[in-house]
TrEMBL record:
Annotated region (Disordered), positions in chain: 54-78
Tree of life domain: Bacteria
Family annotation (Pfam families): DUF2630 (PF10944)
Species of origin: Klenkia sesuvii
Organism lineage string: Bacteria, Bacillati, Actinomycetota, Actinomycetes, Geodermatophilales
InterPro entries assigned to the protein according to its UniProt record, in alphabetical order: Uncharacterised_Rv0898c (IPR020311)
Name of the protein described by the UniProt record: DUF2630 family protein
């Protein structure tokens, strides 16, 4: 997966998140759960993108970057 693929995944997740947030209907448990899932997937995608860019910046192979578990990226401070 290259940076364009990751950015495409990020954009798709953000679009879905916006659709859910912008809907006029009240959000039920399923919608809230999906939004939380989207946020976790976005955190992972942004983390992977940052890893790839950092590896490239320091002369390493960006292909060595890997998805980190949700539990790890969720604990990062923004």
């Amino acid at each position: 997966m290259d940076e364009q693929d990751i950015l495409g995944r990020i954009h798709a997740l953000v679009e879905e998140e916006h659709r859910l947030r912008d809907s006029t209907a009240e959000h039920g448990d399923a919608e809230r759960a999906r939004m939380a899932e989207l946020e976790r997937h976005l955190d992972q995608a942004w983390d992977l993108l940052r890893q790839r860019r950092a590896k490239r910046q320091y002369g390493e192979d960006p292909a060595e970057a890997a998805d980190r578990p949700e539990s790890q990226v969720e604990s990062y401070l923004q």
